[in-house]
Amino acid sequence: MKILGLVLVGLVLRFANSQPVRLERYNVDRNHISVSGISSGAAMAVQLHVAFSHTFRGVGTFAGVPYFCAQGSALDAINVCMDAPQSINVGELITEASDAANNGRIDSTNGLLQDRVYMYHGAVDDVVLPAAVEKVQEFYNNYGGNTRVQLITDGGHGMPTDNYGNSCSSSSSPYINNCGVNGAFECLNHIHGNIQAPSATLNGVFQEYQQTEFAPGTDSFESAGFMYVPSRCVDQTRACKLHIALHGCLQGREEVGDVYARNAGYNEVAESNDIIVLYPQLRADTLLGNPNGCWDWWGYEDNAFFPLEYHVRVGPQMAAVKNMLDRVVGTN
């Protein structure tokens, strides 16, 4: 999530020889659709889960914050949600969710009842302080969620894996840390249950897919996202699960290429459990107020309009990701 005002630096990685494919329909078990994310992606994953609760069976957050935490303010995103999470008023966030549901802006909060929620945080994370996970859990406990919290004592700000990345205590690019823990497995196992051990080999298809058709109301998306289709899901005869994995700030295609999509640990779990994984990709836009390629969890795309829309179904990024999901499921 990095400090929001940090100027984007680093090498811009492109894929000159790649030809993104048109996203297609697959045979998806609609009872097994889930979403997770890290940092700003975690905040977005929670937004998607709450807004489309009748679609998702659960959510995973890695260094995340609760729904509507920033309440449309970049300053609150930094000063409250990231730096002083103990001061987050969860009651206000629950009220916002109830009001949005009553006004038809998100699905009924009844869809959250008993959903499975996985929460991870590194105890030495100095980007999003660990107390934030308590607030995420407090929010979901209001709906009787089946929650699981995992706190790694030497964990920094990064996606925990058991075989790739920086030292576990790191909070630096590419924000993937070797902690001896497979966070993707822990997350997907809690949400879907009975998940088999990660595959040692990837025999499926890793590819880029075209994104622009899904996001007509926003310029914040890259031209292409990534996806992994397990070998048993390619021919579309087997009903497969679907998971959406959202990168964090400074972790998308233009900053680190496909490093996150290939090495966050999801694909190996996906291969052995027939889970199609979508990795939507954002780009940085300084004029938009998003120099680090973060997901919109504080309202930078709302342009000061009221009521705020970034966290409800019609929010530009929310609608775009749902459009991608609907294409894979076959509802658009």
From TrEMBL:
Single annotated GO MF: serine-type peptidase activity
Signal peptide: none
Family matches, as Pfam families: Peptidase_S9 (PF00326)
Single biological process term from Gene Ontology: proteolysis
Record-annotated Peptidase S9 prolyl oligopeptidase catalytic domain positions: 24-166
Annotated PANTHER family: POLYHYDROXYBUTYRATE DEPOLYMERASE (PTHR42972:SF8), TOL-PAL SYSTEM PROTEIN TOLB (PTHR42972)
Descriptive protein name: Peptidase S9 prolyl oligopeptidase catalytic domain-containing protein
